Amino acid sequence: MSETVLSLKNVTIYQSNKVVLSQINLDVTPGEFLYIIGKTGTGKSSFMKTLYGDLPLTQGEGSIVGFDLKKLTDNEIPFLRRKIGIVFQDFQLLPDRSVFENMHFVLKATGWKDASEMKTKIDSVLESVGMLGFSNKMPHQLSGGEQQRVAIARALLNDPEIILADEPTGNLDPQTSVEVMNVLKKINESGRTIIMATHDYALIMKFPSKTLKCEENTIFEVVQKSV
């Protein structure tokens, strides 16, 4: 049996004491690319927030990259987030810092100290997303697609076992969305697990992979044709 990076058993997710998704059973193995789809309000973001500790898991059993989600303490959340990379729809770059400074801030916050090692790491992740020449640019000087590439690079800084991408193409035009997906696919092909919440069915058709759908408080696997 393959080692899992994410395992959920009989999990029910609540938002403000209301059931959002119930009876989730899921195992994700290293190197998988998994889509989470569904209409707005069906639980995609709540599902993702549970995985990175923003919503507590109170019912069922769950583990991600070795952390027990049900027993997760506030003190453990920063350590969990060093082992997972999170990519948001709205990029969440610090507007008053350059691309390099955005990266440097994350590394310092997660315990890196050697300036030379930090620069090498930053250059490496920026190169992996095609943004190496943009280190001195400010976020407002970048297009939406470029900002998202930087956000993906930021998610790679601590060599996460899994990347959680919550609507990463939601603010992008179709062509830019394809470019960002090509970056994510390349990262996945290097062996990294990616779970991506999206409502962009055109992308799923262009980049098919295992797909789970949130609907009527449940989550279930769908075959490509019924997406």
TrEMBL record:
Which SMART domains does the protein's record reference? AAA
Q: Identify the keywords attached in UniProt to this record, alphabetized.
A: ATP-binding, Nucleotide-binding, Transport
Transcription keyword on record:
no
Keyword Transport among UniProt keywords: yes
| CDD domains, per the entry | ABC_MJ0796_LolCDE_FtsE (cd03255)
Where does the chain cross the membrane? Answer: none
Q: Where is the ABC transporter domain?
A: 6-227
SUPFAM superfamilies under this entry? Answer: P-loop containing nucleoside triphosphate hydrolases
Write out the GO MF terms.
Answer: ATP binding
Q: Return the protein name.
A: ATP-binding cassette domain-containing protein
Q: What's the source species for this entry?
A: Flavobacterium solisilvae
Q: What is the lineage of its organism?
A: Bacteria, Pseudomonadati, Bacteroidota, Flavobacteriia, Flavobacteriales
